[in-house]
């Protein structure tokens, strides 16, 4: 496993790429309301990425046909935007997107509630987000990678949610997906040591029910097998000499 350590120049470019993505999300989230289609979300997101000086890194990545992944309700990740997929009051939609700026990638995901949602779905979205912040408490130089994984898993476990195992976080830099892979479930080993200059995409994917998932016939959309809602929260972070820096938040 070769985990890249970014130079000060590369870190600066990563920061710029990630801040641009954070600005995209700030505007995109304002558009999510009942009646909008996932196709429209993608069109707006693509435009915002380009207006901010970036290039969508998801578009045509391994053949993915859009710039924004739009995963509704039981869809975990990689939902393909569609004109006939209209959001309704009480839905949740997980947006996953990134951009390239001067050769450096950013990646982040948000699960957004559409109007008023049920209490159990609201809790799922909140706790998934909280698990990210619990995990990165351990994202410090000198700790080990799976300290992050175990913290996320330990935070989720008491709530009885399913932690998706087939999809994990990853390193990021001049490529969208780099070493290492970062599980959200407990590991028996500690994993590689963390050093300043590592940039990681931490992304809990949590199901309201069981952890089991399946792929739809489009070969992209991953859904919870039991049909219950799923939430996703992701940021690109930087390992420093002190606290981790969350690059994709303003």
The assigned structural class equals: alpha+beta
CATH superfamily descriptor: Creatinase/methionine aminopeptidase superfamily
Shape descriptor = globular
Tell me the strand order in the biggest sheet: 8-7-9-14-15
Instruction: Please indicate the percent range of residues in DSSP E strands (runs of 2 or more).
Output: 15-25%
Q: Quote the average pLDDT.
A: 98
Order of helices and strands: HHEEEEEHHEEEEEEEEEE
The end-to-end span amounts to: 31 Å
Helical content class? 25-40%
Counting DSSP H or I runs of 4 or more residues, the number of helices is: 4
Main sheet overview: 5 strands, antiparallel
Uncertain regions spanning at least 5 consecutive residues: none
Which fold name corresponds to the CATH topology? Creatine Amidinohydrolase
The CATH class is Alpha Beta
Number of DSSP-assigned strands:
15
Number of domains: 1
Q: How much is the radius of gyration in Å?
A: 17 Å
What oligomeric state do these chains adopt? single chain
User: What's the CATH architecture name?
Assistant: Alpha-Beta Complex
Give a brief outline of the structure.
With 250 residues, the protein is an alpha+beta fold. Helix content is 26%, strand content 24%. Strand 7 (169-171) and strand 8 form a beta hairpin.
What does this structure look like?
- The chain is α+β, with helices and mostly antiparallel strands and 250 residues long.
- The protein has one domain (8-245): Creatinase/methionine aminopeptidase superfamily (Creatine Amidinohydrolase), CATH 3.90.230.
- Helices cover 26% and strands 24% of the residues.
- It has 4 helices and 15 strands.
- The strands form 4 sheets. It has a 5-stranded antiparallel beta sheet with strand order 8-7-9-14-15. Strands 1, 2, 4 and 5 form a 4-stranded antiparallel beta sheet that branches.
- Strand 4 (92-101) and strand 5 form a beta hairpin.
- The mean pLDDT is 98.
């Amino acid at each position: 496993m070769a985990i890249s350590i970014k130079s000060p120049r590369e870190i600066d470019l990563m920061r710029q790429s990630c801040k641009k993505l954070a600005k995209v999300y700030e505007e995109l989230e304002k558009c999510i309301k009942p009646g909008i289609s996932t196709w429209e979300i993608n069109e707006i997101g693509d435009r915002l990425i380009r207006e901010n000086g970036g290039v969508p890194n998801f578009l045509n990545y391994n053949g993915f046909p859009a710039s924004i992944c739009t995963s509704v309700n039981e869809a975990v990740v990689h939902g393909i935007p569609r004109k006939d997929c209209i959001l309704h009051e009480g839905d949740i939609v997980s947006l996953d997107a990134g951009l390239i700026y001067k050769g450096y990638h950013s990646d982040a995901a948000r699960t957004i509630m559409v109007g008023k949602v049920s209490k159990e779905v609201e809790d799922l979205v909140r706790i998934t987000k909280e698990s990210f912040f619990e995990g990165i408490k351990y994202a410090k130089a000198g700790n080990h990678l799976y300290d992050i994984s175990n913290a996320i898993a330990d935070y989720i476990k008491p709530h009885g949610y399913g932690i998706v195992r087939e999809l994990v976080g990853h390193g990021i830099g001049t490529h969208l997906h780099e070493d290492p892979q970062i599980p959200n479930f407990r590991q028996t080993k500690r994993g590689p040591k963390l050093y300043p200059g590592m940039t990681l995409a931490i992304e809990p994917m949590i199901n309201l029910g069981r952890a089991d998932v399946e792929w739809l016939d489009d070969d992209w959309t991953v859904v919870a097998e039991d049909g219950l809602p799923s939430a996703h929260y992701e940021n690109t972070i930087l390992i420093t000499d002190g606290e981790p820096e969350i690059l994709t938040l303003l």
